[in-house]
């Protein structure tokens, strides 16, 4: 089928172009919205500025296709081949790319708001500065991807592979990062308010100066993580492993730290006002000058901890384990 045939049939009202071979054809600037091109071959086809809104391109072969500025909003591209395709400045709002292969594709300046890239293959993809608000990247392969300055607010990234990806200056407010391996990554100064990081491996990660208000870290591993000067007001850290982490000068007021392991952590000058530390392990932790006003310390292990100059007003210590702890007045509890 030729380009002329496609245009003529479209003008006559036909929208079914399944299994069509249009490889290396020029369809630039042509309106083909609401058409079905599923299972078609469009290898190295020119589709710049074309209107493909709400088209079906299921399992289509678009390897090397030129889609610069194309309207691909709400397009169905499930399992499509987009290897080395140029999607620069393309509008992909609401598009579905479930299991699509975008290896080596160019997406600079593309609109990807509320796109579904569930289990898509995106190794080394360049998404620098892209707006990915609300995008579905669950189980996607983003190994080595460039995500610098990307807006990933409310994005769903659970199960994604971010190994080797660059994340400088990204936005992750309300993002879903549950269960990922993000150890050693640099999140310093980022906005992670209400981010979901439960069950995530974050040992050695750097969150210094970040906004983690209302963030979820339940059962996360934060051994030796840098959490200095973070805002973690009303955070959810139940059962988290925060051994030897640095939380100096951070705000953890009203944070849920039940059964968390904070042994040997640096909590100097930390605000723990109203925090729930029931069953938490703070053995050997440093809490110099920390504010624990109104904190719950039921069955909290503070053995060997240093509480010098700490504010314990309104705290019930009767059920806390204090053996060998240095109390606010400098005396050792026996």
Automatic annotation (TrEMBL):
SUPFAM superfamilies to which the protein is assigned, alphabetical: Pentapeptide repeat-like
Highest taxon, organism lineage: Bacteria
Matching Gene3D superfamilies: E3 ubiquitin-protein ligase SopA
Protein name in UniProt: Pentapeptide repeat protein
Keyword annotations from UniProtKB, A to Z: Repeat
Lineage per the UniProt record: Bacteria, Bacillati, Cyanobacteriota, Cyanophyceae, Oscillatoriophycideae
């Amino acid at each position: 089928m030729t380009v002329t045939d496609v245009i003529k049939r479209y003008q006559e009202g036909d929208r079914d172009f399944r299994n069509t071979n249009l490889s290396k054809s020029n369809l630039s600037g042509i309106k083909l919205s609401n058409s079905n091109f599923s299972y078609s071959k469009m290898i190295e086809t020119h589709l710049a500025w074309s209107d493909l809104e709400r088209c079906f391109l299921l399992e289509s072969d678009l390897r090397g296709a030129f889609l610069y500025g194309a309207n691909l909003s709400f397009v169905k591209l499930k399992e499509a081949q987009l290897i080395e395709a140029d999607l620069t400045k393309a509008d992909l709002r609401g598009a579905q790319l479930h299991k699509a292969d975008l290896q080596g594709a160019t997406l600079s300046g593309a609109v990807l708001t509320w796109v579904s890239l569930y289990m898509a293959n995106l190794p080394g993809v360049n998404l620098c500065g892209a707006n990915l608000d609300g995008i579905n990247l669950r189980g996607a392969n983003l190994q080595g991807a460039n995500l610098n300055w990307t807006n990933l607010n409310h994005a769903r990234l659970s199960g994604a592979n971010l190994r080797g990806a660059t994340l400088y200056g990204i936005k992750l407010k309300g993002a879903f990062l549950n269960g990922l391996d993000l150890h050693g990554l640099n999140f310093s100064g980022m906005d992670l308010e209400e981010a979901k990081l439960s069950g995530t491996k974050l040992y050695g990660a750097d969150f210094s100066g970040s906004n983690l208000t209302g963030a979820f870290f339940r059962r996360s591993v934060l051994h030796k993580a840098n959490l200095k000067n973070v805002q973690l007001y009303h955070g959810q850290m139940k059962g988290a492993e925060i051994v030897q982490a640095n939380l100096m000068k951070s705000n953890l007021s009203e944070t849920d730290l039940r059964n968390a392991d904070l042994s040997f952590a640096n909590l100097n000058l930390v605000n723990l006002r109203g925090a729930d530390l029931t069953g938490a392990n703070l053995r050997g932790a440093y809490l110099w000058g920390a504010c624990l006003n109104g904190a719950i310390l039921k069955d909290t292990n503070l053995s060997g901890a240093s509480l010098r100059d700490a504010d314990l007003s309104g705290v019930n210590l009767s059920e806390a384990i204090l053996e060998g702890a240095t109390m606010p007045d400098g005396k050792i509890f026996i």
